[in-house]
Write the structure tokens for this entry.
Amino acid sequence: MRFGAELHGSAAAGAALTVAYGAGSLVGSAFVTVWPLTGEPETLAVRLFGAMAVATALCAFAPGYAVAGFAVLGLLNATSFTATLAARGAYAPDGAQAQVFVTSAGLKVAMAAAGAALAGAAGASGGVLLLGAAAATGLGVAAAWVDRRVGVRPAARPAAGGGH
């Protein structure tokens, strides 16, 4: 809500950003429902998270376009989440798929809560918080990129239904 207040002088502007993000998520979810993602799921996830880092930074640098930017972030979040689900399904060890899904979901919720608590305690401007989020996401993308170059890749199981 702080970023909304910085944009337009009222906390109600934060609600507009939340609605834009939710609308983007809805559109992204509908998109991947009608046109499922295709390609190697880990590559898709890394690329989509890279796009999220860029979009988040752009929201910080162009606050006048924040409503549109937050809608794009919602769309990217929905599609990147779908890619991570496909990657979990493709790479989870046989017999451990449920554990991988539950652990991943738990980590996602825990990290979101920790990030929200940190952002609230930081007292920084909305733009600084967005740049911090963009940097954290970018570091994750960079780590994944390095891991893909130097790590040993497990073979993905064929997808049920023909693709991701």
